[in-house]
Design goal:
The chain is mainly alpha-helical and 336 residues long. The chain is built from 17 helices and 5 strands. The strands form 2 sheets. The chain has a 3-stranded mixed sheet. A two-stranded parallel sheet has the order 2-3.
Length: 336
Amino acid sequence: MRRMIPEETRALVRAARAFAVEQPARTWAEVAPTLLLAAATQALLLAPVPLGWKLPLGLLHALVLVRVFAFFHDVQHCAIFRRSSVGRWLVNAFSLYFVYSPPVWRSRHDAHHRRNSLTNAREVAGQIPMVTLSAWQRLDPSARRLYRLFRHPLAVAGGLFTYFALPSWRAFRAQPRRCWTAPVWMAVPPVALLVVAAWRDVATALVAIGLPLLVSSMVGSYLFYAQHSFEGVRYQEREDWDYFYAALHTSSMFDMPALLHWFTGNIGYHHVHHVNAAIPFYRLPEAMAAIPALQRPALTSWRLADVRHVLTRHVWDDTAQRLLTYEEADRAAPGV
């Protein structure tokens, strides 16, 4: 991929900055009905409704929570509710669902943005590791097993534990005073499960609390995973890394129906978000439509072929400029 020259970069920065302006009335118009919907679906799940009705309702609640998490994400980037402490408080209160406290999420996610998809960088918090072929060849068997475990499809499916709870706990272990909120947020979902099980019954607890948490975190984990590990991605090592090249070439556009863009808070416009994280979620499509440099992104989608590609390519060949399966990486390194 051709690198952008400084003049093009400056033009992109200026163009994107024009959309990094919150429209407070629109923020409330987008957020308030969703929070009310989340509260209503949760209340219905806790009400004495037949279990057969609660299963589809639990899935709807899970999708609404994905949208709520997109709000939480934008609050941490100061893209929405910049001047509304009430709005920030409301959204952060819903973050109790996600086992990730606001300060811990913010510090880890900011690190991801500062070093988006940098290869061979274990020290970059908040992102899923990606090794180059040469680094893969140097890994010992135990390191390979750990790497494969963290990128396994079951790790994505169990994102509530692998990509939310575990990093939050590790942050607390590393900096207990700074990250003291981590165990508090992590304790809320299991306590809620126990309380609802004692108040109603175990089935209600699982459908009203467990199912939405597992499904919403699985969808969120896959979105994050896929949007930095897609067909056509271009990774960089530290000495070559460039912020805007990474935004445009290691962040994808997730092609999905308008309804799913709504449920996912437009996070599918991921390359736009990485160009300027202060653009509110509702202005990402507008920015893409207005800025030519953002209109030719690499795409991924929910189609089976794209999902299969995402979940089977794990090693970056910086010579061939493509992602390899483990089998291809091993064949490229005979005897390793």
